Amino acid sequence: MSRHIDPSPRPRGRPRSTKARTAILKSAHDLMAELGPGRLTIEAVAARAGVGKPTIYRYWANAQELAMAALLEQKLPQASSRETPSPLDDLERQVIHVVTVFSGRRGRQVTQMMAASEADSEVSKAFRNQVIMGSREQGRAILERAQALGLVRTDLDMDVALDLIYGPIFYRLLAGHAAVDAAFATDIVRTALKGLGTIVDRRTS
Questions:
Q1: Which end of the chain, N or C, is more open, meaning fewer C-beta atoms within 10 Å of its C-beta?
Q2: Helical H runs in the chain?
Q3: What is the pTM assigned to this prediction?
């Protein structure tokens, strides 16, 4: 079980105000909705929240960390974990859900923040764990059910298989070269399963 990471670092000095933190995060969220995450500044958030810049810096090191924390406060909807007798159909539905969520405005903001974030910061790690790894681990559970039923090869590298399925979504969101929609999600799953499945369609070899 992965350890929960608090995206808000412990400040030094005076105990932090919950009211101030809430006002800062709300102001950051509202400003990102108006301007986009790339144009968020500490000065603008401080003015909107009615706090001084030092108060913000007691919580977050820079505007990027603040933006990620604000997005973390507004959790993205998760796919249903309901299992059906067909795990491969469940996988397709789950990937369609991921595509639908990330192709919306908030999903695109999240993708932009992930691309620009410093990989080693605690906020970035918490951000990735909540935004990406939850969906990926749900996919892992589905593929493991498929393995148990003999629908997916047992010799595959599960982490590579998951990257093959979920990686194209974020690549296309970042590159912006083609549509990110339900048809794309279906193509990803069905193409991946030609290599991961126990039965290969020789007509496509």
A1: N
A2: 18-35, 42-49, 53-57, 63-73, 87-102, 105-116, 122-128, 134-148, 158-175, 182-196
A3: 0.73
